[in-house]
Design brief:
It contains five helices and no strands. The two termini are about 20 Å apart.
Length: about 150
């Protein structure tokens, strides 16, 4: 049961990092739209975070597959496949010259991913709490020995 708790703690921090990463990308796009940042700064800030986001999402999906958490694996699989498709077609980075043309699509995409990652985060927090309660109440018999 300790491994299950460790899995959910690790999933908690990965999900939190994914939410923070996408939220930062939304902030950068909003700052570009409000003309607080120039296109080069915005694209360099966002492009720096895209590959780590893809790697974290893929590793979280693989972690759910390896540990036989099928529901969470099936929830995370579509986004992982979408990221793999973007990477394979080389459309994963934001182009400096095209950033203003596609800013509304990029913001909608980031808001959708943010909503998905928040739902995943809430599900992981629920399972983390459940796993912590089960692991601490299961060892309750050992406390009565002392």
């Amino acid at each position: 049961m300790a491994w299950d708790l460790f899995l959910w703690i690790l999933s908690f921090f990965v999900s939190l990092a994914l939410v923070a990463s996408v939220f930062y990308q939304v902030i950068c796009l909003t700052d570009l739209e409000a003309d607080y940042l120039n296109p080069f700064e915005t694209s360099s800030r966002i492009n720096r975070l895209i590959l780590p986001e893809f790697i974290l999402q893929g590793s979280l999906c693989i972690l759910f597959l390896i540990t036989w958490h099928w529901f969470f694996f099936l929830v995370a699989l579509p986004v992982t496949c979408y990221h793999a498709m973007l990477y394979k077609e080389r459309r994963h980075l934001i182009d400096v010259t095209e950033v203003f043309r596609g800013i509304s699509f990029e913001k909608k995409l980031r808001f959708t991913k943010l909503g998905f990652y928040i739902v995943l985060f809430i599900m992981v927090v629920f399972r983390l709490t459940l796993s912590a309660v089960y692991s601490f109440t299961e060892d309750d018999d050992l406390l009565h020995l002392f």
